[in-house]
Amino acid sequence: MTVRSEPEVIDEPAPMQRRVAEERRAGRTVGLVPTMGALHEGHRSLIRLARQRADTVVVSIFVNPTQFGPDEDYEHYPRDFERDMAACAEEGTDLVFHPDPGTLYAPDHSTWVDETSVSAPLCGSGRPGHFRGVCTVVAKLFHICAPDLAVFGRKDAQQLRVIRRMVRDLNMPVEVIGAPIVREQDGLAMSSRNRYLDPSARRQARCLRRALDRAAEAVRQGQRDAEALKILMTGVIGEEPDAALEYAEIVDGETLESVDRIEGTVLAALAVRIAGTRLIDSEELTPDEEESPD
Questions:
Q1: Which residues are catalytic?
Q2: DSSP run (H or E) holding 272
Q3: Which residues of this UniProt protein bind beta-alanine (predicted)?
């Protein structure tokens, strides 16, 4: 791929606000791709989508400390700014916002954005405070970068729904676009945390995709009982010796509330630790409307 000109890097909020204001005064639309860096092909697909939809593309690279729990991997989260910049240049990014934590969070920071419904189940139940940190930093990025649209990956299915709820409830003038999951050739959803996996763990991680495929096939064959699908997915994960299941759930596709029976679009969602590395994956399942109930 031909390397384009280097994006302009801005590391403080006020200059970023001024720079985006210049773009908007010139009549250019702004698309934002929020990331924590360690960019891979999944992130690149988000940048390409933003490039198609907006005149000016901003990529934020910021490992947000407030969405990590005390025993999580904030200090060890992969960081490679030079490689990230090369990826941004190749994909035609115009501006990169790369602040230090201290520029976004004052020492006596005490204001939070907290969505309390869609964020409650799934990852929200096992990672208290995670989505409060996500909402707060995304609200900050929206305020600083003033995008017309923002692109998020569907791999983080709950995060996408939480952000959409926040935007709706707070009347934020931002179109939130969900981009398709990008997968490795063997089906594993691309994630920055995949770098933690050794060859054995990497092979075992395929069980997430297998479990979702089994659930999808069961629905195609007429299974409508949510508990049966959860048991099916749990069994697939249990086949791997280093896999520790956090949850295997079937929830409403919009509200993420638990369902007993598949009657419309639902989300099959998984969180699994493979040799200690936490991975998530999901797939929307929709029964054939022409099938008669079993």
A1: 43
A2: strand 266-274
A3: 67
Specify the pLDDT at position 191: 97
Is 193 known as a binding-site position?
yes
More confident residue, 289 or 28: 28
Domain residue extents for the chain: 8-179, 192-285
Answer yes or no: is pLDDT of 3 > 70: no
Q: What is the pLDDT of residues 190-222, one digit of tens each?
A: 999 999 999 999 999 999 999 999 999 999 999
Q: Is 155 annotated as a binding residue?
A: yes
Q: What is the CATH number of domain 8-179?
A: 3.40.50.620
Amino acid at 46: L
Cα–Cα distance between 215 and 275 in angstroms, integer?
A: 24
* pTM of structure: 0.95
Q: Is 182 marked as a binding-site residue? A: yes
Question: Residue 44's pLDDT is what?
Answer: 98
Structure tokens at 238: 């249990």
pLDDT at 294 over 50: no
**Contact of 256 with 161, CB cutoff 8 Å:** yes
Question: Could you tell me which CATH number the domain at 192-285 has?
Answer: 3.30.1300.10
CA 221, 225, 226, 231: dihedral to nearest 10 degrees?
-80
Has 36 been labeled as part of a binding site?
yes
Give the tokens for residue 185.
Answer: 């050739």
